[in-house]
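anyone else get weird line breaks when pasting these?? whatever heres mine. first is seq + tokens for prot A
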Amino acid sequence: MTEIFGIPTQALAGQLLIGLINGAFYAMLSLGLAVIFGLLNIINFTHGAQYMMGAFAAWLLLSKLGIGYWWSLLIAPVALGAFGVLIERTMLSRLYKLDHLYGLLLTFGLALVLQGLFQNEYGSSGQPYRLPQEFAGAFDLGFMMLPRYRAWVVVASLIVCLTTWYVIERTKLGSYLRAATENPTVVQAFGVNVPRMITLTYGFGVGLAALAGVMAAPIYQVSPQMGANLIIVVFAVVVIGGMGSIGGAILTGFGLGVIEGLTKVFYPEASNTVIFVIMVIVLLIRPAGLFGKER
């Protein structure tokens, strides 16, 4: 068996795959956070709970209504996006002129409420979600077996992330969104309904979290704690990439997932803290993050 730095190639490739899969979810969740913060200036601590609700939506659709994975990829993000619109209109819209701390406290409290409701209803143990039949089996790469579903997760998340980046950075709609963060009064003077744009943007960010939850359901156990366990790492990813930076969220999410996977091979004891160590170093050198703008 071939080795690299004394590590079997198969073990190294396996950890790289795990890192890529984790990075795919880091990227999608941090992308949603970056979109919301970039336009609303709200640090959305509810994001982890919304990710969890997306996974539960897929599980409920399958177990209660017999609706499978593919329809869940559409229904869950739309339904949770509508829920996000309701939250923005009834709660967050009242906080835009206040300090960031109020939005953080509100979304943190809301996340605890949502997690508590699901835990009270479904308990703490995870619920299994059946792997879609189309993704049964694995690709034989010679040095390792690559599960089809995990390959799909990486490819699909890349498509979603790059499409979102393109829309925000390269289209007329994206230019309106970016302009609205700088001077909403001027943008509104051109006939753009800025409040509606803000509401839909928050709904879109929540929809991204729900989409990530649906994609995570066949890999991880669907449980009320799944978002809480992930959101702290995702916030570290966003800080490293730069708050509000779309490209930074994507690149940093995938990159840190790979670094975390490699750390599990070469120094397993540090795998749970390596992202936070990197965050501290980046903040000391560049407080705005790797791709953030200095203010």
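and prot B, same format (seq, then tokens)
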Amino acid sequence: MTVFPSSLPVARTYPLRGGPVLRWGILAPGDIAKDFTHALHTHTDQRVEAVASRSLERAQEFAAKHGIARAYGDHAQLVEDPEIDIVYVASPHSEHKRLALLAIAAGKHVLVEKPIGVTAQDAREIQAAAKAAGVFAMEGLWSRYLPQTDIMLQLVEDGVLGDIRLVTADFATIAPTDPAGRNYSPELAGGSLLDLGIYPVWFSQLFLGAPDRVTTFGTLTSTGVDAQTAAVLEFESGAQSVLTTSLLHFSPERASVNGTDARIEVNSWFVVPAGFELIAPGKGDKRLSFVNDTGLEFRDGIAWEAAAIAQHIADGLTDSPLHPLDFSIEVMTTMDAIRRGVGTLA
């Protein structure tokens, strides 16, 4: 058994201020774009300089509310703006690939809010286009850049958990039931899996890699998107992941990584800045607690992702060393298998 540590590692996060600064443009001013802009302007030196929507009025309203210099009523106008370094795609999932390719074709770096596309093939096309253009491209799975994520990975790398045998993760919430809204509309690539379920799948693959077998149980909404899904991922090593997601109920939204020597239990809302416990079971359990004392909560955590991307690009990188496109493709490949199992992908 590995010796239980006396203290937790220090997070290897990128500084939020004092590093290189990018001029960001946002495509699609929705709820996630609002929180993205707030996180950047409040906690980093990064600046959103332009926003575009199909509705000029909507773009102008968003710009005025968030202190953004320019608003466009056409996506193409923003990606052609010479004063924009990188484009953040914050549209409904169905538009992720199209808008990412639009930005890449204009020579812009691009951050695509998760999921990077609707399928693994979408992700491959974005990767190929970015490579050909020589621009940076990444999926906006910002949880990868949180301090807690790095500390947990260090514990695994140091062998503190022993052999990992089980990963659990759950993410569910009650979504608006508007048939034309992004959660329930097939045309907008709705459903729980693409919106919420990608987080449990990502968490599993972060610690166990791509599965060898996928078993899925699920139900559909009346509109034909996935409503509630449970997936069991199995690995040749004998390890398993048990993952759940739903649009129909609230849940604890916890996650755990369980090894032969110790386990990690992540507090509720494991995808945002949160705490966790490292526990070595036995008589008089040994415990170490990580507490999020950064002052950043919920989607404020996007700040670490944005600051890191600015540094990646300043370093001449075209792919994230922490969340590379190959990893996004692997996650989407598992997502494809789960969606085929539940009946939302042919």
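btw re prot B: The longest strand covers residues 164-172. The two ends are 46 Å apart (CA to CA).
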